[in-house]
Design a protein that fits this description.
The complex is a heterodimer of chains A (329) and B (425). Chain A is built from 13 helices and two strands; from the N terminus they run αββαααααααααααα. Chain A is an all-alpha fold and 329 residues long. Chain A folds into two domains: 54 residues; 248 residues, MetI-like fold (Orthogonal Bundle), CATH 1.10.3720. In chain A, strands 1-2 form a two-stranded antiparallel sheet. The longest helix of chain A is centred in the first third of the chain and has 54 residues. The chains are: A mainly alpha (329), B alpha+beta (425). Chains A and B meet through helix 1, helix 5, helix 7 and helix 10 of A and helix 1, helix 3, helix 11, helix 18 and helix 19 of B. Chain A: Pfam families: BPD_transp_1 (PF00528). Chain A: It comes from Cryobacterium lactosi.
């Protein structure tokens, strides 16, 4: 073999290796780039999830640590507790009272912000401001409003001659008060997401619709809303997951943070906290955590199913239902 | 965290949490043990106001080979979470950890995690019941007492005057008497005058006073739960609710309404541990007429107070013990009383003129030092507080609240209490 062919062979090998490198680069790099999220997620999301399952099968004290293996006993005990079911009821009630008005109000606010307002940035920032306020601070402010005896709302009701509402005693008023805090904090945030979706709707559609004689109301319902459906579904799913995990607001609603003397506003997360930190029974707390996890998965799956159906029909809706112009035929 | 956020936020939170874990898990263990230039570094963790600020400087001057680093938590809850978490983790605690009497029973279970602090030097330094509460079954003293909360009765002399009752604190003490019946009877008299002001703030606060006068209210000394069968508890429950139905403002202590009520003539009297004076003064700023009577229904009562412990995690337990002993000596505790009003638990401090001569301007210049010292001496019961004391007492507080806010009848609420206690397992 001559020296020249040897050099050639080496060069070819090098080129081949470079090729292979760039091939790997193309194939593997994207995964490398997104890996930090998944590594961190595995560390602080997946691992605790598995560990919680392990804890839920044991007697486990906050300080004393691991005790005997008890199988599914913690789950049985917890499911037999009336407070578990009350918490479940409260969680869904507060979730519905907050999520539904929140999404509707957010769309309405977004629609208003979508107009050509003076000082656009000012209004948009203004809407987001409540989101910046810490939930604890929100709770402090709202607790002044929702005081049973000396709260602002009840004082106003009394001056008009109406009875005081017992915010911290009756179930529905307490849920309403907590939902108000949640809505205060999240409506503006969702409004901005909706606003972004609205602005992504091509303006020609509107022009065409207006030429066809559609009014504002008509374009909103027949154009804006159908085109925003994916965003609406996204917001609904995220508010579902968040809504089922409401903690700060009910915890700060009174000075004890246990959800009331009859558990009027105890949510599942508060119940977990009570079991884990008040009773120091980590086994039962973990069992409830897992039940909550399963409930959220169930609801999310349901949401996903419904949203698939809706988005499928929404595509059709746009194509099949042409805007009927008024006057001109 | 309320909402499951978008991925970027998840990542940010994840990162922050990971760093927080690293920071909280590893750092303190390192810095509490390190010796700098031959100096021993001792960390002291307290909460709220212990009044120790100037004292650390003084200790370092007297002991040049020791550096004291103070850590202060804003609330006792925060301190408790920190303590239990790190106790569970097995590292990261300070060399001297302050604890509140409320969590003492829970910690006594794990008394092997704390250095036995008993020594001849501190023998008989504290009021007997204060020291007894910090001693475990094997006779180990796990904590040095700092302050206590002897209870008197605070009252509004202006409202008393409006109802035609005496206002002078000695006469008021006679009026209130020294039994619960006489205290409630005085309330009935007050209500009869038609002032339309409730007598006391809440059934729950009154319950605290009543229940702390039983040796074994909820648990036997061996930890057996007797709360639901104990006739004393049921009787106390009924008597407090009887009184509350006509005399209570139905305000839950520490609620926003309760705080606001100080500015609205919410109630005329309240059971009043020493540390409550500062809280009343803060909430009732601008209101004149508060005073304190040298009596307490049913004898004496103590509510709250703190201790210093040395966790076995400390790398310098001897030095930490010496520091804790010095801080809880009568002289130092008196200086803390002067700066932050924490009422000392040391026998010698209770007799010192510095304490006995102190007065409180807000409370009509009452000789609070003298009054509280007498109240401390009147405490003759050390209620047994086992592991389940606090969850049970919590359930009882809620039972009383349910009756006060009329969401349940007295019997229903008791049934719920029984269920709750059973659920504690």
């Amino acid at each position: 073999m001559t020296a020249a062919t040897e050099v050639d062979a080496r060069a070819i090998r090098r080129i081949a290796f470079n090729h292979r490198l760039s091939h790997w680069d193309v194939k593997l790099s994207p995964y490398l780039y997104i890996s930090p999220f998944f590594i961190v997620f595995a560390l602080i999301g997946l691992f605790p999830l598995g560990y919680t399952a392990w804890v839920s099968l044991h007697d486990w004290n906050l300080i004393g640590g691991q005790g005997d293996f008890v199988g599914l006993e913690n789950f049985q005990t917890v499911l037999a507790q009336p407070y578990f079911w009350i918490s479940l009821r409260n969680t869904f009630s507060i979730f519905l009272l907050s999520a539904v008005p929140q999404v509707i109000a957010a769309i309405a606010i977004a629609a208003v912000l979508d107009f050509n307002l003076r000082g656009k940035t000012f209004w948009r920032m203004g809407v987001l401001l409540p989101y910046v306020v810490a939930p604890v601070a929100v709770a402090l402010i709202f607790n002044d409003l929702f005081g049973d005896k000396y709260g602002v709302i009840n004082q106003l009701l009394n001056t008009v001659g109406l009875e005081s509402i017992r915010w911290h005693v009756d179930v529905i008023p307490s849920h309403f008060a907590i939902a108000t805090m949640v809505n205060f904090r999240w409506t503006g945030y969702n409004a901005l997401i909706f606003l972004a979706a609205m602005q992504a709707v091509p303006r020609d559609y509107y022009e065409a619709a207006i030429i066809d004689g559609a009014g504002r109301w008509r374009t909103f319902w027949s154009l804006t809303v159908p085109l925003m459906r994916p965003t609406i579904i996204f917001v609904i799913i995220t508010s579902t997951i968040g809504g089922l995990q409401i903690f700060d607001e009910p915890r700060m609603f009174d000075q004890y943070g246990q959800g009331g003397a009859s558990r009027q506003w105890q949510t599942l997360t508060l119940y977990i906290y009570e079991l884990g930190w008040n009773q120091r029974n980590f086994g039962r707390a973990s069992a409830v955590s897992w039940l909550l996890f399963l409930i959220i998965i169930l609801i999310a799956a349901l949401n996903f199913y419904i949203s698939r159906k809706i988005s499928a029909t929404s595509d059709k809706a746009i194509k099949v239902r042409p805007i009927k112009a008024r006057g001109i035929s | 965290m309320k909402r499951f956020p978008r991925p970027t936020i998840v990542a940010a939170v994840a990162g922050a949490a990971a760093f927080a874990l690293l920071a909280s898990g590893c750092a303190p263990a390192g810095d509490s043990s390190e010796s700098e230039g031959g100096k021993i570094k001792l960390t002291v963790a307290t909460f709220n106001e212990f009044g120790y600020e100037g004292l650390f400087e003084k200790y370092m001057e007297e002991n040049p080979d020791i550096t004291v680093v103070a850590k202060k938590a804003a609330t006792s809850n925060e301190a408790r979470d920190n303590l239990t978490t790190r106790l569970a983790a097995g590292s990261g605690l300070s060399d001297v950890e302050a604890i509140e009497v409320d969590w003492l029973p829970e910690l006594l279970q794990y008394s092997d995690q704390f250095v036995d602090l008993s020594s001849d030097d501190v023998e008989g330094r504290w009021l007997e019941w204060k020291e007894e509460a910090a001693t475990d079954a094997d006779g180990n003293l796990i904590a040095y007492g700092t302050d206590i909360g002897p209870e008197g009765v605070c009252y509004r002399s202006d409202l008393f005057a409006a109802a035609g009752l005496p206002t002078d604190r000695a006469e008021v003490a006679t009026l209130l008497g020294d039994s619960w019946d006489s205290y409630y009877a005085a309330g009935t008299k007050f209500a009869a005058a038609g002032t339309n002001v409730p007598w006391f703030d809440s059934a729950g606060a009154t319950w605290q006073g009543v229940i702390n006068q039983f040796d074994n209210a909820y648990e036997e000394n061996d930890g057996t739960v007797i709360a639901t069968e104990n006739p004393d508890v049921k009787a106390a429950y009924n008597s407090v609710l009887d009184a509350s139905s006509t005399l209570s403002a139905h305000l839950q202590q520490w609620s926003d309404d309760w705080t606001a009520s100080f500015q609205n003539d919410g109630f005329a009297t309240m059971l009043c541990p020493g540390w409550m004076l500062g809280i009343i003064e803060g909430n009732a700023a601008g209101v004149t007429g508060w005073d304190i009577a040298d009596t307490f229904p049913g004898g004496g009562g103590n509510w709250g107070g703190s201790y210093l412990t040395v966790p076995t995690q400390s790398e310098h337990p001897e030095e930490a013990k010496a520091l804790a002993a010095w801080l809880t000596a009568p002289e130092q505790q008196l200086s803390a009383f002067a700066s932050k009003g924490t009422f000392p638990s040391q026998v010698d401090a209770l007799e010192s003129p510095e304490l006995l001569d102190s007065t409180n301007e807000f409370f009509n210049n009452a000789p609070v030092g003298q009054i509280l010292a007498t109240r401390a001496a009147a405490v003759d019961v050390t209620p047994f507080k086992g592991v389940k004391y606090f969850p049970i007492n919590d359930a009882m507080q809620q039972a009383l609240t349910r009756v006060e806010d009329a969401t349940m009848t007295r019997e229903q609420s008791w049934e719920q209490f029984v269920t709750d206690v059973k659920a504690l397992g």
